[in-house]
Design a protein that fits this description.
Blueprint lengths: L7 E9 L7 E11 L4 E10 L2 E10 L7 H8 L1
Antiparallel strand pairs: 1-2, 2-3, 3-4
GO molecular function, one term: structural constituent of cuticle
InterPro entries: Insect_cuticle
Pfam families: Chitin_bind_4 (PF00379)
Length: 76
């Protein structure tokens, strides 16, 4: 899902080796939110038989991501 305020989440679950003694569920996904510092945080994660792994990235949000000078150069 994705909300109007930029929050979002997505997950995909996969069953590996179904019907065997080595059957396990692996979940891969992310969630995203904007913190009080106005940075957007995205946490990518994977969970499976080896445990839970997560990696967080942070980037600045806002309307002026591209400077006006750079934008003019793209337009021509």
């Amino acid at each position: 899902y994705e909300l109007s305020d930029g929050q979002g989440r997505e997950e995909i679950g996969t069953i590996h080796n179904p019907g065997t003694d080595q059957e396990y569920l692996e979940v891969v996904g992310y969630y995203r939110y904007t913190g009080p510092d106005q940075f957007t945080y995205r946490v990518n994660y994977k969970s499976g038989p080896e445990g839970y792994e997560a990696m967080t990235s942070r980037y600045k949000t806002g309307r002026n991501r591209i400077s006006p000078v750079a934008l003019k150069s793209l337009v021509g």
